Structures are given as C-alpha cells and as structure tokens.
Amino acid sequence: MEVKIGVQHAPRELVLEAAESAEQIQAALDKALADDGTLALTDSRGRQLLVPARSIAYVEIGSGVTGQVGFRG
Question: Could you tell me the pLDDT band of residue 68, with boundaries at 50, 70 and 90?
Fold first, then answer.
C-alpha cells in the first residue's frame, strides 16, 4: 500500500510502500491524532517510519503502481 505523508514546514512529502492495509493505516492515523502521539508505519522492507501527529499536514493512501515502466505521452 503506497502512503504519502505531508509534513508541516517540510518541502517534500514522505512516501513509503507500507506493509499494512489501508484500514490498518487509517486506524493507526486515527489513534495517533486522537492521542496527539506518533504515527508509526512499517514499510515493505521492514523499516519503521515515525511521524509526530502534530506535524502531519495530510496523508494519502493508495494502492500504488506496480510494474509500470516508460513514458506516457
């Protein structure tokens, strides 16, 4: 599951291929925002991404694009 996280006062968004489902990511985000805690996600390589909830500007959850190569014109 591809996840893009916009962080306040950061010029670039964080992008990761998460091991969790969309529902699990939503639940983790809801909990982090409710508790003013930390959003913790694990990517497909087993690395953990931690983002303080108060710094999150937006989160985009998508299925990702697999196997696409080349240019479209």
Answer: low
Q: What distance in Å separates the CA atoms of residue 17 and residue 72, rounded to the nearest whole number?
A: 23
Q: Is residue 28 part of a domain?
A: no
User: Whole domain around residue 58: which residue ranges?
Assistant: 1-10+35-64
Q: For residue 63, what are the contacts with CB-CB under 8 A and spacing of at least 6?
A: 1, 2
User: What's the Cα-to-Cα distance from 33 to each of 40, 44, 45, 68, 73, rounded to whole Å?
Assistant: 12, 23, 25, 34, 41
- Express each pLDDT in 15-29 by its tens digit: 999 988 999 999 999
Give dist(CA 20, CA 41) in Å, integer.
Answer: 8
| Cβ-defined contacts of 30-36 (< 8 Å, 24+) | 32/56
